[in-house]
Write a structure and sequence with these properties.
Elements (H helix, E strand, L loop, with lengths): L1 H4 L8 E3 L26 H11 L19 H20 L21 E5 L7 E5 L3 H9 L4 H6 L1
Parallel strand pairs: 1-2
Antiparallel strand pairs: 2-3
Length: 153
């Protein structure tokens, strides 16, 4: 909400909300028993690198530090969507239009903000929601855990 109240142009807030469709980050091929169906730190980078290495095909992907896997159409869409946002930001100073500025929600005048959920559609694309975590943040503030804590964690 602090960014939404600011006057600087081009503030974009987003969260990758979808993990790989094969339901785990499989590391069994390197002798580590670890799996998750959730996105994790650097998941977006690993997914885009695997997509690029496969030249955008849906053949077997080999993300860095993962075992190979065959991506679903949702994995391909998410990787293409992420790369599209990054490339558009590099070339134009902002992500693609499907990722709105925090102040572009209909309720922005009341302090609401727009938050992009990358991988938030059924097909793996980007969707914007208004005040995605406002209720959680308000609850944390009531417990004495406010914005200074959020910015460092």
């Amino acid at each position: 909400t602090a960014a939404a109240r600011g006057q600087a142009p081009g503030v974009f807030v987003g969260t990758v909300v979808r993990g790989a469709s094969h339901t785990k980050r499989d590391l069994s091929c390197v002798g580590i028993a670890f799996s998750t169906h959730l996105p994790f730190h650097r998941f977006d980078l690993d997914l885009v690198l695997a997509w690029a290495d496969a030249r955008g095909s849906a053949d077997v992907w080999q993300p860095p530090m993962w075992c190979p896997f065959k991506p679903s159409s949702v994995d391909v869409q998410l990787a293409e969507d992420l790369w599209g946002h990054w490339l558009h930001f590099i070339l134009h100073g902002r992500p693609e239009v499907s990722w709105a500025d925090v102040r572009q929600s209909e309720a922005a005048s009341s302090g609401a903000y727009s938050h992009a959920l990358l991988g938030g559609t059924d097909s793996g694309g980007t969707v914007n929601v208004v005040d995605w975590k406002r209720l959680v943040c308000s609850s944390m503030e009531e417990m004495g855990i406010g914005q200074p804590y959020w910015w460092i964690n």
